[in-house]
Amino acid sequence: MTEYRIIDDFATDAESLRRLLDSLPQWRREAALKFRHEQGQRECALSYNLLSEMLGFQPEFRIAEHGKPYVKMPLCDEMIYFNLSHCRKAVACAVSDNEVGIDVECIGRYGERLARYCMCDEEMQRIQESADPDVEFTMLWTRKEALLKLTGEGINDDMKTCLSSERLNGIVIDCGLNKEKGYAWSVAHYSD
Question: What's this model's pTM, rounded to 2 decimal places?
Answer without folding.
Answer: 0.90
